[in-house]
Amino acid sequence: MNRAERLSAVLDLLAEDGQLEVDAIVERLEVSPATARRDLDALAQQQLLTRTRGGAVAHSVAYDLPIRYKNQQNPDAKAAIARAASALVPRGAVIGLCGGTTATAIADALMSRADIMEPAPDPSLTVVTNAINIAMQLAMRPQIKTVVTGGVVHARSYELVGSYTDAVLASVTLDFAFIGVNGIDPNVGPTSHDEREAAVNALMAARATHAVLVADSSKIDKRAFAAIGPPRLFTTLITDAGATEEQRERLADRGYDVIVAE
Q1: Please, what are the domains in the chain?
Q2: Which parts of the chain register pLDDT below 50?
Q3: Which of the residues 3, 113, 152, 175 could staple to 162 if both were Cys, CB 3.0 to 4.6 A apart?
Q4: Considering the entire predicted model, what is its pTM?
Q5: Which pLDDT score is estimated for 191?
Q6: Which residues contact 202 (CB under 8 A, 6 or more apart)?
Q7: DSSP notation for the chain
Q8: pLDDT score, position 2
Q9: If we measure between CA atoms, which residue out of 258, 196, 260 comes closest to residue 228?
Q10: Looking only at Cα atoms, what is the longest distance across the chain?
């Protein structure tokens, strides 16, 4: 694995019980002790952990994620989609991130990029989000300007919805918006289980130059309750290699530029 993937893996190990020893990193990731120490030092410099003698402890946070974030389905596919989404984003861009596990994975991928995390007098990236958990992640990164929409907290997803959210989104412009879905059907388009989340997602997409759907292949040919915006709102879909050629062709016929994340 490359350095960005290794740093992400170290954070995953640290999340298991809140503390981590150098020896455990050496054993689990098959790296040298010197590499493990350098990785911990780099993450401490980014204020993602606190170094201890022989290891590190996690920063305490004042929130816990809903169960949907803890029991993430298709994590490998979502990580691949997140890397592909991150590759579209140039340094200095303004992006929108909705809530959900795939958007959370995109935030992780962006925070792993050396060009974004490099210290600079001005923010390397601006992220507008209506997801409390993503805002909390990004708040620890001074290189990223984080804009939270405001609104009413949706307890199931930790997403902010309602008229306050709409007011903030209506006053900004985005280069990219990455929108997760509960289903995408070539005929119906993208859908969500919740009409309030769907409304926010549609507005965020409408404020972006490039509106991008991010959905693992299990969501293709599925429909949920609420449509996300009008037809042709989204120009691009990023999915994983589990999408069949026939599924990709039908989506392409409907005008989507389908990117398959490997």
Answers
A1: 3-58 (1.10.10.10), 67-261 (3.40.50.1360)
A2: 60-65, 67-68, 70-71
A3: 152
A4: 0.76
A5: 96
A6: 228, 229, 230, 233
A7: --HHHHHHHHHHHHHHHSEEEHHHHHHHHT--HHHHHHHHHHHHHTTSEEEETTEEEEPP-S----HHHHT-SSHHHHHHHHHHHHHH--TT-EEEE-SSHHHHHHHHHHHT-HHHHS--SS-SEEEEESBHHHHHHHHT-TTEEEEE---EEETTTTEEESHHHHHHHTT--EEEEEEE-SEEETTTEEEES-HHHHHHHHHHHHTEEEEEEE--GGGBT---SEE-SSTTS--EEEEETTS-HHHHHHHHHTT-EEEEE-
A8: 82
A9: 196
A10: 58
- Kindly give the pairing relationship between strand 159-161 and strand 55-58: unpaired
**Per this entry, what is the length of the chain?**
262
- Which residue from 23, 22, 29, 24 is spatially nearest to 6, judged by alpha carbons? 29
Q: Which amino acid is at 213?
A: L
The one-letter code for the residue type at 123 is: P
